[in-house]
Amino acid sequence: MTAQNRLNGIDIDGLVATVQAIQADPNLARFRFRSHTDWVSGGNVKTRIQGFYGAGHEDTSRAAPFTLEGDEPSVLLGTDKGPNAVEVVLHALASCLAVGFIYNAAARGIQVDALEFDIEGDLDLQGFLGLSEKARPGYEGIRVRYRVKADASQEKLLELCDYVQKTSPVLDILRNPVPVKVSLEV
Amino acid sequence: MTAQNRLNGIDIDGLVATVQAIQADPNLARFRFRSHTDWVSGGNVKTRIQGFYGAGHEDTSRAAPFTLEGDEPSVLLGTDKGPNAVEVVLHALASCLAVGFIYNAAARGIQVDALEFDIEGDLDLQGFLGLSEKARPGYEGIRVRYRVKADASQEKLLELCDYVQKTSPVLDILRNPVPVKVSLEV
User: Fold this and answer.
1) pLDDT (tens digit per residue) in A85-97
2) Which end of chain B is more exposed for a tag (fewer CB within 10 A), N or C?
3) pTM of the model
């Protein structure tokens, strides 16, 4: 691979080949992601993420799992060994918007020099605690402010920002309902 | 604090006091969580999570930030330095359901000995790639299977599972729309 084929850290030839392969066989686009989580104590959990299905086969490229730790801060009666669940959602959103922006910038020939996100979300704990019918358990609203330095006009970057919002998996997951089936084995 | 006041790693007296304080002053239930994310290269980002507002004041109890790394696996043209954004969402969901189950079990006097979650989500990459109008960018569906060992009847545990689903912040965020405002500074 030559230096010319990379932009923003992305293998442009690989990106084009991926798009062409999926256009030829849309089944390659079907992915199934997985996680396994063990409760430790109190609000503390450990999640392992490793294998997934995608591009027509079970992906075994990860030699070891990623481990994510979740907990609650002391004011929420936890031991603060990791960010809590709703804080992690903010990271997922930024991570997703970054990938969307960087990959699509690369596809359009836009070089990005810097990209950063500040996100905040408002939550009324009365919902979780079952103290109010009016308060929903989750975020009432999330605000994303992001800053970019790139070699493109403001118009092109705002257009890219719009496109990324239309195609971001996590933004879609937040803005629109996802069917979630929960089953408990006792 | 005596041993009798803890169950499942939760300070029961603290939980009761928190609920009473919020019933007396619902403004204490207002939380604002935050994240800051820097893009590194390609699909790789680093997120710092530290301070938040809640219980009537800015919480500065965390001496250092948590750092979360996001990336894409090689088949998605990343360098696999961390789980991707939609995998992280599965962790957030398990983390949230675990907290809901454990805290509410503690409040009901149910001792939990073990709790684990397997979650999977199906995603059609054609949405992210803009190759199909029919494919949404995010998860088409998520399935949670969880197993619990606890000193309560199956009926009580299934009832608890239902209650947790009604009050879980991340489950609410997934199942119902959240307003997300995105603004880009060029």
Assistant:
1) 999 999 999 999 9
2) N
3) 0.97
The answer to whether the CB atoms of A35 and B94 lie below 8 A apart is: yes
Ramachandran category for residue A8: left, alpha or beta (phi over 0 → left; psi -120 to 50 → alpha):
left
β partners of residue A54: A57
Residue A22 contacts B, CB cutoff 8 Å? yes
Residue type, A155: E
pLDDT for res A1 = 45
Give the residue extent of every domain in chain B.
Answer: 1-28, 31-82, 84-177
ipTM above 0.90, yes or no: yes
CATH 3.20.20.210 given to domain B84-177: no
Inter-chain CB pairs, A–B, below 8 Å = 464
Residue that is written with structure tokens 């994510």 in the block: A68
Residues ≥6 apart with Cβ < 8 Å to B153: none
A161 near B CB under 8 A: yes
